[in-house]
């Protein structure tokens, strides 16, 4: 979460220890000013005051700051929009504020900022939507608001921080099956496979967790194979970290449980030797998954051998 340098209210420094309700009320009132510079100044102050202290976040929300900040997010001034998004993000870090932010209509303006805002506004909008998606009832509303395609775009084209924010938000949203379908239609599997393939990056774990979540549905498993995911997964079993090996083995097991074709593809990629090594030296969970997958792959090979023998006889 990115934040700008501190400013002072109307040229006077704010002592957070001495913050009082009157000052908060003046800042909130200034959010509705006709003067855009005054609005920016007040929003910046609120953003900073809400950055670290839970007590401040609650007091600012109680003073009525949420609705005018949401209005600011819809501004055509990109700097003002960015400040508003970041202020709402900071307020959303307090669980007590999430319901009010949602009920005040923040989702659509945040999605708008996610689509057309500055890079910082897009990243912070993704973070804010992640926070709001932690309210279970909001997941579907966020998905239906159009948030998922721009999150997929941020995952594909954003900075490394943007990719991380988008990936985490998608993981939260895609716990709802309806959102899994939306994400797959938006083409999420392609950037996820590409991120998993970049073994030197910090995105392998995050992207693999999203793929594992999505792979609960058949269309995700098909998309994963279509995007060349099997060689990537097998390579991670060979050279990944313990955690990466565990999560991708679970994905491979899902792929192979209901598809003989996928089993053949996994076996042809040379998965059995690294799976055997994992079954001997992995975590307890990874060992169980690896053993189950090895058994499936070996049964498939045995069946094919028997079929060839019968045919040749």
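-> sequence recovered:
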């Amino acid at each position: 979460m990115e934040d700008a340098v501190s400013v002072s209210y109307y040229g006077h420094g704010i002592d957070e220890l001495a913050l009082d309700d009157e000052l908060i009320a003046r800042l909130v009132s200034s959010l509705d000013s006709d003067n855009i510079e005054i609005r920016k100044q007040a929003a910046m102050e609120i953003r900073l005051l809400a950055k670290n202290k839970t007590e401040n976040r609650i007091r600012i929300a109680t003073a009525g700051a949420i609705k005018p900040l949401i209005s600011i997010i819809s501004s055509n001034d990109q700097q003002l929009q960015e400040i508003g998004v970041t202020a709402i993000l900071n307020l959303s870090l307090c669980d007590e504020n999430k319901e009010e932010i949602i009920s005040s209509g923040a989702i659509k303006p945040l999605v708008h900022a996610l689509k057309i805002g500055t890079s910082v506004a897009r990243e912070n909008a993704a973070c804010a939507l992640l926070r709001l998606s932690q309210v279970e009832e909001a997941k579907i509303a966020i998905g239906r608001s159009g948030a998922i395609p721009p999150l997929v775009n941020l995952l594909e084209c954003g900075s490394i921080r943007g990719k991380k924010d988008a990936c985490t938000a998608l993981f939260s949203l895609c716990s709802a099956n309806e959102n899994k379908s939306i994400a797959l239609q938006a083409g999420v599997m392609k950037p996820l496979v590409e991120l998993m393939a970049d073994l030197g990056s910090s995105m392998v774990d995050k992207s693999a967790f999203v793929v594992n979540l999505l792979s609960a549905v058949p269309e995700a498993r098909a998309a994963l194979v279509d995007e060349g995911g099997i060689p990537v997964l097998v390579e991670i079993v060979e050279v990944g970290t313990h955690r990466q090996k565990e999560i991708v083995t679970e994905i491979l097991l899902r792929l192979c449980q209901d598809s003989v074709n996928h089993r053949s593809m996994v076996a042809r990629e040379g998965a059995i030797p690294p799976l055997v090594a994992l079954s001997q030296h992995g975590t307890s969970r990874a060992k169980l998954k690896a053993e189950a997958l090895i058994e499936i792959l070996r049964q498939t090979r045995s069946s094919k051998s028997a079929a060839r023998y019968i045919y040749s006889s």
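Residues 1-18, 305-313 have pLDDT under 50 and may be disordered.
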